[in-house]
Amino acid sequence: MLSRIFPAIGLVLTILFISGCNDEKVLDSLTQEQANQTLSILQQHNISAWKNGNLKAGYTISVHATENTAALSIINQYQLPWAADVQIGNAFPDSSLVSSPGAEQARVRSLQEQRLEQSLRIISQVVNARVHISYPYFTNDLSGKNSASHIGILISYKGEIDENIFISQIKSLIKNSIDDIRYENISVVLFHAPIIQYAPPLQVPGSQAYFWSIIYSGIIILIATISGYIIYMRYNQKIQYKNMQLSSEVSSPQKTNSEVPENNDD
């Protein structure tokens, strides 16, 4: 019975080992929030993805090898993983040294850009967004006169939208988010997000990468098969050896009894 079960177990393990090689990691060392965001976006595009890991070591996002190209295309479009949400309080800790007014103003502008980008990504049609606020010249002029600020916004979007209404809404959001900004100084540029690439590029049959991938796969399968066969043969030899010992122990008493001479009464 065991001699039949053991090869079946070896075959199942070999199949699981080979199928496990078809899973590919697309992102690693993620925080829990980044992993959940990436997992949600991939599943929105019907990509079968899952996460592994823990808080200490970080999380990993994996997909099937057949969906690796589409997953990487989506990750590139959405610029995943996203950085953690910006908190103004963390940018100016109490223990930090007091910098120059110009440096502090530049830091505030950078934080404003990041916060606006995070707000724009909440919109369902927005795939990715970049916000650029004009920085003032760093001079020693203490007159308090500041040049007018300008804001440029680049958005890639998906689906169908009314661009005029959409741009007007974005400008209203920016106008009410930043002080002392004129409506006419806000520029919004829209681009339709490129189509997601679901199939990998065609490989030239004679390419070395394609050739060696087949060789390596064949070697792995061959090693797994030979290892399972060797283990099975050794186990089978042990079973046969034990059976021979048992048969010899059973036959030896019979042989001893047959050799005892009979006593004839005269």
What does this structure look like?
The protein has 266 residues and is of the alpha+beta class. Helix content is 50%, strand content 16%. It contains seven helices and six strands; from the N terminus they run H-E-H-E-E-H-H-H-E-E-H-E-H. The strands form two sheets. A three-stranded antiparallel sheet has the order 1-3-2, covered by helices on one side. The protein has a three-stranded mixed sheet with strand order 4-5-6. Helix 1 packs antiparallel against helix 7 (208-259). The longest helix has 52 residues, at 208-259.
Widest beta sheet: strand line-up: 1-3-2
Strand content: 15-25%
Topology as a string of helices (H) and strands (E) = HEHEEHHHEEHEH
**What percentage of residues falls in helices of 4 or more residues?**
40-55%
Number of strands: 6
Using the alpha-carbon principal axes, give the shape: elongated
Helices and strands, with pairings:
Blueprint: H1 2-20, E1 23-30, H2 32-44, E2 49-54, E3 58-64, H3 68-78, H4 88-91, H5 101-121, E4 126-133, E5 151-157, H6 163-175, E6 186-192, H7 208-259
